Amino acid sequence: MFKFLFSILLNAIGIGLLLAVIIVPGMPQFRNDKRVDSLLGIILCNQGEQLVRQASNNPALSTVGITITPYCISRSGQSRDVTTRWLLIGLGGFGFTMLFGVVLDIMLLLNGFRRAVMHLSIKRNRLPSFSTTPSMPPSDDLALSLKDKLKQLDDVHLSGSISDDEYRKMRQEILDKT
Question: What average pLDDT does the structure give for the chain?
Fold first, then answer.
């Protein structure tokens, strides 16, 4: 459960980065907002520099909806374009956290599926079957011993896949069949 909440938190951080760094500064109602300039300046500019956002004159960026160009201006009046840094932090941070969150979600789903299969196989008191090649017939040596079955059940119980009541019931079923 904690891992799932962590992946949701990662996705929320990614969306927050996109909103705070890319979308809000480009919105017309925040175009002249000094609070936005101050916060972006902390992220994009060096110490002693101030952020200024100007209307974009780049037709390539304007076609994708980026209507501002951020500049950091030093105390001596020199300005430097920080558009690349701005896009890298905003879009890169969003992309990284979202990708990491999605990969974590997929891993959690696969792990849950694996646990469900193991839970069902133990509940039915048999392991998942593996096919054999024609040259290798199935062997009775592959059957699990009582000790192995109980160890496997203990592992599933300790992982939290089954409750205490299910554990006791399944353990008794294994012992009754021997």
Answer: 83
